[in-house]
Amino acid sequence: MVRLRGRSGDRSSRRPSGWRARGRWDEDRPRRTGAAGRPGRAAALRQVLSGRSVAGQVFVLNIAIVVLLVAAAAVSLLLQVRRDSTADARHRSLAVASSFANSPGVRESLSAPDPTAVLQPRAEAVRKATGVDFVVVLNPEGIRYTHPKPDRIGKHFVGDIAPALAGRTVTEEVNGTLGRLVQAIAPVEAPDGRVVGMVSAGITTKNVGGATERQLPLVLIAAGVGLVLATAGTALVSRRLLRQTHGLGPNEMTRMYEHHDAVLHAVREGVLIVGGEGRLLLANDEARRLLDLPDDAEGRHVRGLGLPGDIAGLLESGRAATDEVHLVRERLLAVSQRSTGARGGPPGSVATLRDSTELRALSGRAETARERLDMLYDAGVGIGTSLDVTRTAEELARLAVPRFADYSTVDLYDSVLEGGRPESVTPLRRTARSGVTDSGGDVPLYPVGRQIRFVDVSPQGESLRTGRAVLEPRLDLAPGWHEQDAERAARVVEYGVHSLITVPLRAGSLMLGVVSFWRSRNPEPFDTDDLALAEELVARAAVSIDNARRYTREHSMAVALQRSLLPRSLPEQNALDIAYRYLPAQAGVGGDWFDVLPLSGARVALVVGDVVGHGLHAAATMGRLRTAVHNFSALDLPPDELLGLLDELVARIDQQENGDPAGAPVTGATCLYAVYDPVAGTCEVARAGHPPPVVVGPDGVVDFPEVPAGVPLGVGGLPFETAELRLAAGSRLVLYTDGLLEDREHDIDAGLARVRRALEESGDSPEETCRAILDAQLPKRPTDDIALLVARTRVLGADRVAEWGVPSDPAAVAEVRSRVTRRLTEWGLDELAFATELILSELVTNAIRYGGETVHVRVVRDTSLICEVFDSSSTSPHLRYAAMTDEGGRGLFLVAQLAERWGTRYTPAGKVIWAEQPLP
């Protein structure tokens, strides 16, 4: 007999016992098998019928299913036969009734003196010939003329004759005089369509079911044959299943055991089976190799195999273990052990052994690689979270400590911190430093903010000069580093820093600075693998630092542009006491702006606007709109008309930018324009998609006046509306942009509520109001620009305003001059009397001559002396040069020469020509 060999090529000493076991199985086999080596037919049949085996259970289940299917088929067939019989009875009854009703002589017989004598024989003949149970002829009242039973003639018919009387043929099932039956009723119609009688033919249910009963034996025979065939087929399948599961022959069993042995002795894991008394029952080839077992190990106690005490104790105890590591003859073995008696098996345990010596070394290297990949991943998500150069450098320094280095420093050129291009001739500045102890505060390295100029022979200088990383595994033996600062270098080494890596911080061709990694607590010096990791880490950080540098440059340019476009200082005026705040967004410069524009008649225009977006384009667009508002305000237009012109301008800008591929249209702009008149104490407001103003009365009551919203600028198609607010002296008018109200956590309604609370608790002055609003509303990192304008109103009293109505008579000009002279004397402005008389004379004369019947004069003493002449004409005068021979045309020229400024503004009732003179 050929025996299997183990992996070493030697014959296994365990084989005889295995073959003896197979021999005993073969000796037992003839007692339960037939001559052919298969189960006997009688034994197989008993096993199938017993139902204890899988084959028996399958046989019983299949028989039950077949019986149910045959029964269902038989019932279905019987129901089908019965249904077909009933349908046949209906059709036959209908055919007989219709044929008899339409047969010749039936209609004439109904009108005979004795219809029964004529129709009864014919009806019976038809009944017997067709096989129906009755043929009944009726008159229209339902009285029978014929019937198989003569005693029923002359009585009322049982059934629904209404459809037949209506000329329709109908079939129905009723309980008639013959029992339950299926009948058809057909009308007998006269030539004119009138129903003169009816014919009913039918078959009783008993006769209908008789067909079913006649076919029942055939159905049962077919069901029995099907059951027998199905049972035979199921028995064959079950017998085959029994043979495949329980009738394995000797050859199959031999191959099964051979495969078992081959697998057991070919696996790369050691397998040990230990009995309940601690004796080794089986050890495969791999277990013998790993434990260096003797040839006669099987059958001996595990304590006598020369194994280390810990693993021998584990095998003897039989306790469960999973991947316990034990040192056996310079091998690290991972041992797993399970009990064999947990589910009723024999007492003992099975142990598997794996050599994890090389795996542990590989696992250590893999763990190191994983940690480095994790750090690179963290660098990708943790460095560059903001577009701030200093913060990005600090993120790089913190990431490397303590996972890679004990201390790390980042040195950048000053121009990089400001957003410019680096200049190698300038010194570097220590931008970030991090360490294992208080961010490196106690290590004698250069502090943050210190300017450093590295010498060329130092590691940092060499990295900056060559653009390559430098590894110094031992700092005490690095002469170049000591030449940088010998005293500080000695203190650093004395502190315990022993290894250094310097990596240039490069973004393309730009050298931004240098990063240094230091080790002190970790006794292992940096190696080439660490150098590669440092280069990869710094390369990723360099991209983020360069992006932050570029953003800083663009942000600085945008801020500079925006600052240059915003008002540097507020103009001089006496109508309003004004305070303002402008705060650019942290993420980028936006397009918010505000303006205070003095107008004629001591009036002041307040403007607040917002261009959607950030960056240079938004700032430039804001400058264009602000300039346009300046120009339009010089026309002294009402707020709604000014916004209309501004809306047309934005629409034209969008058209021009859409036609230019390199241009960018205005994606949205809002504006609020308010004109305050200190003489009347009124404020006219119009807004284009902008948040509404807030009014705080002198008593501290906060109000949000109703001002029509209007559409944003550039939408077009809809007019703007002006609302007039009456403001008492000391009222505060608060204008703002949406950046003050909206943020990612709250909506505009919550922002308005916070503004209301802040205004209710703020002081009376505009400065205190601005401070209170920003303290309540300003987020930590504003995502949008904030423009805030607070104006406290003043009202010019009657002692500073003089008004007169002027009759439409040239002679009234003299009276105007005398009144003005007296009022100027009261104001102590006698020096301006002559010029003022001349200005008013010319303006009033022109108004009387060309301006209509209503003329009104007003003189206001403010920062200047203002003379205004109101008339009802909408014609504007023009300044011109008069020829030597012209008799007129010099009036406005004289006014322009005597006044500092003059102009025209229109009102709903006409126009106003005004002139201003500086006060002495």
Automatic annotation (TrEMBL):
<keyword id="KW-0597">Phosphoprotein</keyword>
<dbReference type="GO" id="GO:0005886">
    <property type="term" value="C:plasma membrane"/>
</dbReference>
<keyword id="KW-0472">Membrane</keyword>
<dbReference type="InterPro" id="IPR036890">
    <property type="entry name" value="HATPase_C_sf"/>
</dbReference>
<dbReference type="InterPro" id="IPR029016">
    <property type="entry name" value="GAF-like_dom_sf"/>
</dbReference>
<keyword id="KW-0067">ATP-binding</keyword>
<keyword id="KW-0902">Two-component regulatory system</keyword>
<dbReference type="InterPro" id="IPR003018">
    <property type="entry name" value="GAF"/>
</dbReference>
<dbReference type="InterPro" id="IPR000014">
    <property type="entry name" value="PAS"/>
</dbReference>
<dbReference type="GO" id="GO:0016791">
    <property type="term" value="F:phosphatase activity"/>
</dbReference>
<feature type="domain" description="PAS">
    <location>
        <begin position="258"/>
        <end position="323"/>
    </location>
</feature>
<feature type="transmembrane region" description="Helical">
    <location>
        <begin position="59"/>
        <end position="81"/>
    </location>
</feature>
<dbReference type="Pfam" id="PF17203">
    <property type="entry name" value="sCache_3_2"/>
</dbReference>
<dbReference type="InterPro" id="IPR001932">
    <property type="entry name" value="PPM-type_phosphatase-like_dom"/>
</dbReference>
<keyword id="KW-0808">Transferase</keyword>
<keyword id="KW-0547">Nucleotide-binding</keyword>
<keyword id="KW-0418">Kinase</keyword>
<protein>
    <submittedName>
        <fullName>SpoIIE family protein phosphatase</fullName>
    </submittedName>
</protein>
<dbReference type="Pfam" id="PF13581">
    <property type="entry name" value="HATPase_c_2"/>
</dbReference>
<keyword id="KW-0378">Hydrolase</keyword>
<dbReference type="InterPro" id="IPR003594">
    <property type="entry name" value="HATPase_dom"/>
</dbReference>
<dbReference type="Pfam" id="PF07228">
    <property type="entry name" value="SpoIIE"/>
</dbReference>
<dbReference type="GO" id="GO:0005524">
    <property type="term" value="F:ATP binding"/>
</dbReference>
<feature type="region of interest" description="Disordered">
    <location>
        <begin position="1"/>
        <end position="40"/>
    </location>
</feature>
<dbReference type="GO" id="GO:0000160">
    <property type="term" value="P:phosphorelay signal transduction system"/>
</dbReference>
<feature type="transmembrane region" description="Helical">
    <location>
        <begin position="216"/>
        <end position="237"/>
    </location>
</feature>
<keyword id="KW-1133">Transmembrane helix</keyword>
<feature type="domain" description="PPM-type phosphatase">
    <location>
        <begin position="573"/>
        <end position="793"/>
    </location>
</feature>
<dbReference type="InterPro" id="IPR029151">
    <property type="entry name" value="Sensor-like_sf"/>
</dbReference>
<feature type="domain" description="GAF">
    <location>
        <begin position="388"/>
        <end position="555"/>
    </location>
</feature>
<keyword id="KW-1003">Cell membrane</keyword>
<dbReference type="InterPro" id="IPR033463">
    <property type="entry name" value="sCache_3"/>
</dbReference>
<dbReference type="Pfam" id="PF01590">
    <property type="entry name" value="GAF"/>
</dbReference>
<dbReference type="GO" id="GO:0016301">
    <property type="term" value="F:kinase activity"/>
</dbReference>
<dbReference type="InterPro" id="IPR036457">
    <property type="entry name" value="PPM-type-like_dom_sf"/>
</dbReference>
<keyword id="KW-0812">Transmembrane</keyword>
<dbReference type="InterPro" id="IPR035965">
    <property type="entry name" value="PAS-like_dom_sf"/>
</dbReference>
<dbReference type="InterPro" id="IPR052016">
    <property type="entry name" value="Bact_Sigma-Reg"/>
</dbReference>
